Amino acid sequence: PAEAMLGDPEQEEDFQRFLRRVDEISNLVQDLSSPDSTVKAKAIAEAEKRLHDQAASKEADSRTGVDRTVINTGPPVEAFLAGLEKDAKERAQQRQRNELLANALKEKGNEAFRKGDYATAVESYTEGLEKLKDKQELYTNRAQARLKLQQYEEAIGDCEWALKCSEKCLKAYFLMGKAHLALQHYSEARQCYQKMLQAAPRKQSLFKDCMDEVDLEEKRMKAEKRAVEEAESGKLPAVSIRELLQKLNRPDQDILYYAGGIRLLAAAVKGCTEQTLFRTNNGFSLLRDNEAVRRGFCAEGRSPAELDLALSLLWLWQAVCTGNEANQHLLLTDPDVKAELPKLLSSGVAEIQKETLALISLCSENEYGRRLLGKHQDLTSWLQVLMGFVCHSDARAGSAMGILSALAAEQRLVAQCAPLLPTAVLSSFTHLLASAQLVNQAALARCVGIVGSLCAVVGIRVQLAECRECWQACLQLLDQHLSSPPQHQECSFAVLGLMMNLLLESSVVIQDLALDITGRCMALLGHKDGGIVTRATGVLSRVLAAASGAVEAAVAGGVVKQMGRICKTGAEITSSYALKTLCICTRSSRQAQAELVKADRGKVLLKLLDSQNESTVANAAFCLGQCLAMPGAAKSLLGTNVVMTLLRHAGGDAARTSVQENSAIALGKLCVAEPRHLLQLRKLHGLTILSSSMKHLQSN
């Protein structure tokens, strides 16, 4: 059989010789037809050498014969080449026929695999290999089927053959790792996955999942070995776990009997050993195999006894899953549990909701648990359900937001919600914002932050940016919180952050509401909380560009003076927002230009030109250039180092070309407005530097 043949070292060497010979003959025929005379001459020489070797071989063979017939020295070179080419064509044609047969057998095997008939799949792949023994896909497909049949050693052999055909075959490394893992060869499995990553560095996510699986399986086996040792030693916890599970397997008992037994079992689980014994003694089959327990747990309208049973199961699962990833896997992949968790969250029974949230929360504390939740649950529907807990004043609100935060931090929630939020989720969120005074403030702030993280998806951000109801609810919340106690400020801070995210987009709604948004943010500039001032300034730096009327209103409201003050005394991020706001105002408002010149005389802008942040330098140069249009502005800068500073930036090599461009423009305006600056520029050979810099920018 083919399997035995491929395992023979002599046959393996024959296989390698066969591959080499095919390559050599193909290359020789190709070189004989080469337009390059040097290549062709070398090919003819090689053909003559092969002719000589063939003749010598035949002569040696003839001398061993009885009749000692004299052998002709062989055909001429031309005849040999013709024969060689004919042989190559025949081999190519035969390979094409074999390729067709092998592909047909591969498809036959694939069909059997899809139907779960793995033995037939192995047979078909083997027949295909008899037709074409260097077809890599047949080896990996057969390895996959053998994994299903638990033929792990044979699967490893197939993967090794696949790698002989293609040394960068990712599927071969992946399947070989799976086979080694099944054999508890943990080190070998890790090596396979390492080689897979080396062959395809972009498969980092797959590699991490595979390595986590190895770690989990190794940890599980060690725990089970330790638990078996304790059970065999007759220690009390091991005995009690087994006895309780046996009693719970008794059929047709009263539902309160099962509820009480499950509570006792939960109390008996004290640590990893008991958790492992619960798993190895089929504890998770309790829900599946005991119809009374299953019926009580899955009941639509629960009686008091069924409610007690459901709570008991939730406590038990918390006990056996805390810090135990293997148990979390068995629980979260159980079909009944998968179906019931969302129902339990929506049950309306506070106790059930509290314990369900506690169970989900402990699973979401570790990366593996979060991955399981993301894979086996519809987190989009969870988003709406968990948002609903913001209305509760107790611990349920915090637990629900903790779960959403954990899932959003790892992008599980973000990935499932893309490209758009369901209408029901958006409606629920808007309602929460509009009812801000009636809900849990801390939970609402976290909820807003979570929705803000979802705005990393462009589709969701555009969706919210175009939602008039959402914007109006945000503005209403800011109105309510302007005079609210300090504990409500967290919500205002979160909403301002969300607004900044949404203002990355442009929409008709934003244009319509730009004046209202500007007014709310102007009112917040005097707030005692520095974080709120920073975000209010950030919103202004983005919303003013949406409507000219907003700029006029802001300037009339004293925004220039307030932004100038922030630029002088504010933190770096707040100052950067304030400077962007000044750029927008001075670009379209002569009043803003006049006020900035009068209030500052360029001192703050000169200071900002010395910043290490290129964005700040570019904006400061732009703003200065706008202000130089005002009479007396250039004159007020005499005696400063403004010419040298602008020249340094204009002729520099900043990564942002806006630094050079804005600095050069500002320098030009400065010299036109005040000739004495031009004299200083000439002394510094500035015109030559500017000319060179402009040519460089144009070439780029």
TrEMBL record:
TPR repeats lie at residues 170-203. Signal peptide: none annotated. Keywords: Repeat, TPR repeat. Residues 50-66 have a biased composition (Basic and acidic residues). GO terms for biological process: axonemal dynein complex assembly; sperm axoneme assembly. InterPro entries: ARM-like, ARM-type_fold, TPR-like_helical_dom_sf, TPR_2, TPR_rpt, TTC12. One of its GO terms (cellular component) is centrosome. PANTHER family: TETRATRICOPEPTIDE REPEAT PROTEIN 12 (PTHR46540). This is TTC12 protein. The gene is Ttc12.
